[in-house]
Amino acid sequence: MPKTASRPAYRCTECGWETAKWVGRCGECQAWGSVAETAAPTVRAAASPVTAKAVPIGEISVEESAFRTSGVAELDRVLGGGFVPGAAILLAGEPGVGKSTLLLEVAAQTARGRHRVLYVTGEESASQVRLRADRTGAVEDELYLAAETDLGAVLTHIEDVRPTLLVVDSVQTIGASGLEGVPGGVTQVKEVAAALVRVAKTRNITTVIVGHVTKDGAIAGPRVLEHLVDVVLHFEGDRNSRFRMVRAMKNRFGPVDEVGCFDLGADGISAVADPTGLFVEHQSGQVPGTCVAVTMEGRRPLLAEVQALVTPSPLERPRRTTSGLDSSRVALVLAVLQQHARIRLHSYDVFASTVGGARLHEPASDLALAVAIGSATLGVAPPSGVVAMGELGLAGELRRVRDLPQRLAEAARLGFRVAVVPSDRTRQGPRSPESWTVDGMRVLDVPDVASALRLLQLTSEPRLRAAEEGSAG
């Protein structure tokens, strides 16, 4: 039999950090006055009966763990094929981003496939969820709804309904009676999550748990919560845009570099199989200060339009304003353009943004940003049907980007005629290293940003002199 011996211990009520003596400030989360004494039993483990005999791994059947579609293609893409029976999935996101709407749609689609679903809500009443279900068309006979905040009651509902899919919204609102702390605390979250995962594994129920996030964007609660589950998904989106993305941060059954795209509207959420149209504005004529970049979100190439506006500044320190772009990358591109491309920007305000709420943090969008800024400075539009991709170095050189064939294929599919890319000196074959063709699209590789701007006729000498004279005036 296990032998236990109590010893005094102190634990932080905020993060669960433990220490042998009392301190006024937590050594983990740096919170003041959160360390309190608790009884921490010391357990000496002993041999006990096993639940199942160990067998060779080759004799274990995988048929019971086959993927089953969730009914939402974009979510299946992120999960690696769909739901796995017995899997525990943690979905986290900011308040109001659409987590409950997405999971209600997934629950309805699963119920339409003649699978029983139990949706447990601890944040809303049952009637409030029903109102949203009426609005989004998610009312199904096999979809059961319960509003509970007690873990024991949730486990009783699972016994009665025996669902194939369980949705718990959210883990921070469920509490276990007889356990210290309030719902959402470290101890409560650990116990509730462990109990739900245990039920999912023993009864082969796919369980989706909603988790809150902190102001820094991290999942609220102890870090062990992410270790307990099989899949961790982050639901991202801008409040000013309808576009939403689900990104896999951990996945024991599939890749972690996939993203799913969704459109959140008044009548619910829908999958977006081709999101490029949301980020590229098709202009009837050529417009100065615009260029299209090809970025990678996971393993999916996305095209996004970059816009720039350059105006004379009346200020001693010109403004540098960005939207959807990394301000440090924009500052780097401006410095390289001024030093290596003879584009003087020290007396100009520069505004750079993306179209449709896209967020570009990949260095591969540097060249498109440089082309947009150069075009805006001279007031000359780049040639129509051009995409640019490449990372910009401090010496003005262009560096190769990953997954270039996939990017070029996506641009060609969408009808672009010319692509400007960094030089690849390792390419072999009879084709010229400066130009080749991909699916009818001409690809031009250049060694540096100055060559790229010259190739697009954005740095001709008369235009440069006119720009410099206007700056001096």
Describe what you observe in this structure.
It holds the Pfam family ChlI. A motif (RadA KNRFG motif) lies at residues 250-254. Residues 64-213 form the RecA family profile domain. Residues 349-473 are annotated as: Lon-protease-like. Helix content is 27%, strand content 27%. It folds into three domains: 3-42; 67-273, Rossmann fold (3-Layer(aba) Sandwich); 278-472, Ribosomal Protein S5, domain 2 (2-Layer Sandwich). 39% of the residues are buried. The chain is globular, with a radius of gyration of 28 Å. The chain starts with a strand and ends with a helix. The chain is an alpha/beta fold and 473 residues long. The protein is built from twelve helices and 22 strands. A nine-stranded mixed beta sheet has the order 6-5-7-8-4-9-10-11-12, sandwiched between helices.
Short description:
Helices cover 27% and strands 27% of the residues. It is an alpha/beta fold and 473 residues long. Residues 1-5, 428-433 and 460-473 have low confidence and may be disordered.
